[in-house]
Amino acid sequence: MLEKRTTDRVLTxxxxxxxxxxxxxxxLSGTGLSLMKHSAYDxxxxxxxxxREGRTTVDQASHSWLELAEFExxxxxxxxxxxxxxxxxxxxxxxxxxxxxxxxxxxxxxxAGFGYSLLLRMKADPVRAAVISFFYVCGCNLWIxxxxxxxxxxxxxxxMLLTTVFFRGVxxxxxxxxKVGVAAGLICLALAxxxxxxxxxxxxxxLFCLYRFVHQKEEGFFRTLLRMIPYVxxxxxxxxxxxxxxxxxxxxxxxxxxxxxxxxxxxxxxxxSLSHWGKNLGNILRMPRLENGVLTFEMLGPSALVLLxxxxxxxxxxxxxxxxxxxxxxxxWILLAGLLIHFNxxxxxxxxxxxxxxxxxxxxxxxxxLLFTWRGGRKITRLDALLMLLGISMNIYGSVAFFR
Length: 404
Fold this sequence. Notes:
Layout: H1 2-31, H2 43-52, E1 68-71, E2 74-77, H3 82-94, H4 100-121, H5 126-138, H6 142-146, H7 151-170, H8 179-193, H9 203-214, H10 221-250, H11 262-265, H12 277-284, E3 289-291, E4 294-296, H13 305-308, H14 311-325, H15 330-347, H16 366-374, H17 382-403
Antiparallel strand pairs: 1-2, 3-4
Helix pairs in contact: 1-4, 1-5, 1-17, 2-3, 4-5, 4-7, 7-8, 7-16, 8-9, 8-10, 14-16
């Protein structure tokens, strides 16, 4: 009986992942893009090729269109480095023409699979978990990530995958079971920070889950902290590696390079500022226009957050439901604090992503939104279903329109 149940779960999840793949290939054919396309904006492959030659610097003259940081007369890739670690082995197969679209697609399919596994851990039945997981990757701005291969998109797609694996690893482990998952989850969060540094806001939740996992009855606080140490050694080493790499390039362990981009070295172009918050909030709420019977999205800057990322709306409704029923617990409060901090930190950014469909920066919150929304056993309501269908259809329509 148990074996049949496991088989049913695996087949249901596999069917969901195949469905994501089929829809993606259908949309890809409508855009005229090639799955093996290499993006000219793939700075991570450029950095990996430089590593193969023993360099941290890159040739600006041959790549003048890229966002490169200039420091003391040298040029560097101005993004957190972990995706280059992933691209490095691919360069031995494809050289500098790595298939960035294929890479992004594989990451999205893995995100769907781990999202499904996370939902099963939260006691969702397989069919409900599959439906929500399909929506998780197809009903948000991950679509535009899957269809574009630039450095920005690869970092976001990889971050979403790694953060999903993190929550899958630390959630639901108890009674000494799940040691490997907890350890792997914490490592994945450290790697996610090497893609999108603001993912660090979920470190407190990871440490809270780790404390709960290793704590034993009648054991003191400090004894429990000692039991946590083996689990945080590798994440700390990863963080130290980031700091070392930043230091040898920019003389600052916290500087990934963005502050040395030309656009942020000009007077008045501060990368993060409170003055950006209000403008960005207004922009992400902009809705599409109906022009000559055609629904047209604003693509110069962020827009349509609630339409293209409706998990935000569903999460908000779930938060209100729990508040009314007074069912909040410590996990909810820590997750909510992380989400609010993350959301507002992103609103402080000067551009929120430039040319795009929707508000792609905000998919960085999707794994935490998924966990917060369905960890309490929420069913799929009629309104949820409507919002999910709307998000999926609008992202597919908008993605095709973006490339046409």
